[in-house]
Write a structure and sequence with these properties.
By secondary structure, the protein is an alpha+beta fold. It is built from four helices and four strands, in the order αβββαααβ. The chain has one domain: Sufe protein. Chain: A (Alpha-Beta Complex). The chain has a four-stranded mixed beta sheet, covered by helices on one side. Helix 2 runs parallel beside helix 4. It starts with a helix and ends with a strand. The N terminus is likely disordered. Bound molecules: zinc ion (ZN). The site of zinc ion has 8 residues, from helix 2.
Length: 167
């Protein structure tokens, strides 16, 4: 009896440890992208571009995209903001390069559902790949806007809108 009980607690402890290690790993990815953002540059004469503004946190970004036919051949961003908004923009550019506009929309929709709690990355089908590291922002409502700013902005750009605000 005593043994079984201890092994249950050990198992639980191990689970909790794994969860916090996973969070640490996610945090590392976010800090890495914040420090060394990918595709952090302006694209001159971009086919599509838009400005995104999240006044709640002070995040401001510009996104640029080159579109050939219906394929997004290049994506980049500039701007300033918190670690989450910057990392999210960085990973967004990596994710969308080479995707079709339709695929980009579908990923935007999945991302939006994930950070608003409509999609469970553990149990629902999705193509979010490493974007799932942002699932944790669900617990921090103010951070949802930080994580989704770049996505709303690229979505607007691809639809020919040039400005969005999360307000
Ligand atoms: Zn922010």
């Amino acid at each position: 009896m005593a043994f079984r009980r201890r092994s249950f607690l050990d198992g639980h402890h191990q689970f909790v440890t794994e969860m916090s290690e996973l969070n640490e790993l996610y945090q590392e990815v976010i800090l890495d992208h914040n420090k060394n953002p990918r595709n952090f540059r302006e694209i001159e004469n971009a086919d599509k571009h838009a400005d995104g503004n999240n006044p709640l946190c002070g995040d401001k970004i510009k996104v640029y995209a080159m579109v050939d036919g219906d394929v997004v051949t290049d994506v980049a961003f500039t701007g300033s903001g918190c670690a989450i908004s910057k990392a999210s923009a960085s990973i967004m550019t990596q994710t969308l390069k080479g995707k079709t506009v339709e695929e980009a929309e579908s990923i935007f929709n999945e991302f939006h559902k994930m950070v608003t709690g409509e999609l469970d990355v553990e149990t629902d089908d999705h193509n979010l790949g490493k974007l799932r590291i942002f699932a944790g922002v669900l617990e921090f409502p103010a951070r949802v806007k930080c994580a989704s700013l770049s996505w709303h902005t690229i979505n607007a750009a691809l639809h020919g809108e040039e400005e969005i605000s999360t307000e």
